[in-house]
Amino acid sequence: MPHCFIALGGNLGAVEQTFEKALGRLADAPGCALLATSRFHRTAPVGSNAGPEFLNAAAGLDAELPPLELLELLQSIERDLGRIRETRWGPRTLDLDLLFYGSEVIHSASLVIPHPAVWYRRFVLDPLVEIAAHFIHPERRADIQTLRDRLLVRPLAVALAGGSAQIREPLAARLRPGFPEIQFYQWSEPPFDDADRLNAPAIVFWLGEDGHSGQALDLYDELPRVSRIDASSAAESVTDFIRDVLKSALG
Question: Is 95 a catalytic residue?
């Protein structure tokens, strides 16, 4: 059976009781065996619509269910315990996110595994490291302990890559006042291989190709795998997206 990891989050109602009910449902579900749970962590909300303080946790389980059936189980537990999806990233009674399904990599319209934000969200990594410190992220090629520890270094090194200097420099200037713990710089290093992952910046934001130079600068695949993130395709503004990522990474 694939070993799977789940993130729990919530900030409305009696969240601890909701977590206990959700974990009980997972333990009793056919085709699931609940193996481990983390402590419950109190965390600051991320995003302007997130609401009050959150509670977060992580759980590990073995699952006979295929990935989409496991996702449906998690969503049915959310609904049964009062989750209503009205505001994107708004307050919620319960979030159950499927982080990993064994070492599978899935990119479909209904499911992305590993969860795309697991590697930089401290409110996910802090509980997860308690139960899965040595689990290796199949895309980032680093274990959970390493991914979390890279975010604890101060100042936190954050690079802006792609785009043009006319985009990167004003963006860094807008971000610096809100993040005194972060050292921003423009990406100018050669590509890193897996042996260099501990020396790579904690996060490298890809801003897209430079449309003004006449040359394609689509170097995303050459950025360090452990820390690259495509900000050019964010649903919100690039600045807002980067701010939310950095707040999540700082913890």
Answer: yes
| Residue 83 designated active-site | yes
Question: 196 catalytic, yes or no?
Answer: no
Q: Which domains does the chain have, with CATH numbers?
A: 3-146 (3.30.70.560), 156-250 (3.40.50)
pTM, whole model, 2 decimals?
0.92
Q: Among the options 62, 95, 143, 149, which is catalytic?
A: 95
Residue among 203, 175, 166 at smallest CA distance from 187: 203
- The per-residue pLDDT for range 154-163, each reduced to its tens digit, is 999 999 999 8
pLDDT, tens digit, 9 for 90 and up, residues 116-137: 999 999 999 999 999 999 999 9
